[in-house]
Amino acid sequence: MFPEWPRLATRANVERVSELSYAGGCRCGAVRYEALPPACNLCFCHCTSCRRAAGATPVAWATFTGSKFRITHGRLAETRSSAHVLRGFCAACGTCLTYRHDARGEEIDVTLGSLDEPARLTPVMHLWVEDKLPWVTIADELPQFSRGHSAPAA
Ligand SMILES: [Zn+2]
Ligand SMILES: [Zn+2]
């Protein structure tokens, strides 16, 4: 049984919601976003496409429901990194922010590194380990998948 949702958006309720949300943005501050839980598919992605897009590897990601993600300031620039993938970034400073796949149209992936409080979410698996570079050593006990994988909401 869910508690009844407050009918009035009192100041206390608004603050409670914003406390639960995940805010983030690019390095220069031109693009800001907000996402509401749940976050799922928390992962380190070792794939070549993420490495190129971020200029770093691995890249940590969280998946949010698309309708629970919004840009709160500025404009998200997007580029097609493969036939079915749109990657979002800041056109002013280049920070890699989001990933959308046509096959998962209701979802959006967000870089954990662009969150204001990135330590609130922790990756639970390694994806695309077949693309992992030899100088990256996985020193944790998290599950590793040679390619992509989806996990239930965390
Ligand atoms: Zn920026
Ligand atoms: Zn990737």
Structure in words:
By secondary structure, this protein is mostly beta strands. It has one domain (38-154): Metal Binding Protein, Guanine Nucleotide Exchange Factor, Chain A (Beta Complex). It has helices at residues 11-20, 48-54; strands at residues 22-25, 32-35, 40-45, 59-65, 69-73, 77-82, 85-89, 96-101, 107-111, 125-127. A 7-stranded mixed beta sheet has the order 6-7-8-9-4-3-10, covered by helices on one side. Strands 1-2-5 form a 3-stranded antiparallel beta sheet, covered by helices on one side. A hairpin with a 6-residue loop joins strand 1 and strand 2. The chain is globular, with a radius of gyration of 16 Å. The chain starts with 10 loop residues before the first helix and ends in a 27-residue tail after the last strand. The model is unreliable at 1-6 (pLDDT under 50). The chain binds zinc ion (2 copies). The site of one zinc ion has 9 residues, from loops. One zinc ion (ZN) is lined by residues 45, 47, 49-50, 128.
Task: Summarize the structure in short.
By secondary structure, the chain is mainly beta. The chain has two helices and ten strands; from the N terminus they run αβββαβββββββ.
